[in-house]
Design a protein that fits this description.
- The chain is of the alpha+beta class.
- It has two domains: about 1-115, D-amino Acid Aminotransferase, Chain A, domain 1, CATH 3.30.470; about 120-275, D-amino Acid Aminotransferase, subunit A, domain 2 (D-amino Acid Aminotransferase, Chain A, domain 2), CATH 3.20.10.
- Helices cover about 30% and strands about 30% of the residues.
- Strands 7, 8, 9, 10, 11, 12, 13, 14, 15 and 16 form a ten-stranded mixed beta sheet that branches.
- A hairpin with a 2-residue loop joins strand 1 (about 1-5) and strand 2 (about 10).
- Helix 6 (about 205-215) packs across helix 8 (about 265-275).
- The relative contact order is 0.14.
- The chain binds pyridoxal-5'-phosphate.
- Pyridoxal-5'-phosphate (PLP) binds near residues 184, 203 and 206.
- Pyridoxal-5'-phosphate binds near residues 179, 206, 207 and 208.
């Protein structure tokens, strides 16, 4: 694994977090998970913009120029066909619950080989269960940010794992689907693409935006509106997306088979041309 701390490459054994770091004590960090193909980091500008918005909202130090130059250095060292890059921001060491001074912050880039989903598996689709936990506080801004406090998502993801499902889907108390534990969700109903609206409980996914834009280019109407579970079960197709998997259709939700339309494939092709020609 490649490790770059504040722009300096260091061996993994030397990568340490202080015991009083807010990222460790309170999960108070921000992060992005980004894909690279060969030495090209995909959609970096979009990831950095989202990180910047989160940093502004939560008042994290955000040394954008240094992060950008560290990313281009990192890219030169990538040797595998695909890599998973994680960018983490911390405010640094805490004294009590007060935010530390800005100059204590750090950023970390790690890069590890990423095994891309093969086309046969993509065609097979993903089995999904429903997350038993809810993102209960609709006024919290954490679910809309990639904040280190990812307890909801970790819990849901592990429930999926225990049930031998590929992903867990969050649902709100009205019975509307929101998103996956690590992905955004789309359904095709009457030839229209529907995705749950951004709000306090849905992450503004980088790939979600790509899907909406690619659909627009293909002349496919799309709408950001509530998606009742019952509608998704009857939809022509349902698919999930994130920056690592791109788009993958859903085969089952909670044991019920989902129809298998083919619009996701067209959109996927279009996105591949846009971001990785
Ligand atoms: C909760 C959640 N929603 C959506 C996504 C998809 O985001 P992106 O497309 O930016 O990878 C992720 C990615 O990890 C996520 O954790």
């Amino acid at each position: 694994m490649l490790i770059c701390l504040n722009g300096q490459f260091i061996p993994q054994e030397e990568a340490r977090v202080a015991v009083n770091d807010g990222a460790f004590l309170y999960g108070d960090s921000l992060f992005e998970t980004i894909k690279a193909r060969h030495q090209q980091i995909l959609l970096l500008e979009q990831h950095l913009r989202r990180l910047e918005q989160a940093a502004q909202l939560l008042k994290f130090p955000y040394p954008r120029k240094q992060i950008e130059s560290a990313c281009s250095e990192l890219a030169k060292h990538l040797t595998t066909p695909a890599s998973r890059i994680r960018l983490t921001l911390s405010r640094g060491s805490c004294q009590g619950l007060l935010y530390p001074a800005h100059d204590q912050g750090w950023f970390l880039l790690t890069a590890a080989p990423y095994d891309q989903i093969n086309e046969r598996h993509r065609e097979q689709g993903l089995s999904c269960c429903l997350a038993p936990n809810q993102r209960v506080n609709p006024f919290s801004h954490l679910p809309q940010l990639k904040h280190g406090n990812y307890a909801d998502c970790l819990y849901a993801r592990n429930v999926a794992h225990l049930q031998q499902a590929d992903e867990a889907l969050f649902i709100d108390h009205h019975g509307n689907l929101l998103e996956g534990a690590t992905s955004n969700l789309f359904a095709v109903i009457d030839n229209q693409l529907i995705t749950p609206p951004l709000g306090n409980l849905v992450l503004n996914g980088v790939m979600r935006r790509q899907v909406i834009d690619a659909a627009g280019e293909l002349g496919i109407p799309s709408s950001e509106s509530p998606l009742p579970l019952a509608d998704a079960i009857k939809a022509n197709e349902v698919f999930l997306c994130n920056s690592l998997i791109d788009l993958v259709p859903v085969s089952t939700i909670d044991g019920k088979s989902i129809n298998r339309g083919g619009l996701w494939k067209e959109i996927h092709k279009r996105i591949s041309l846009r971001i990785d020609p």
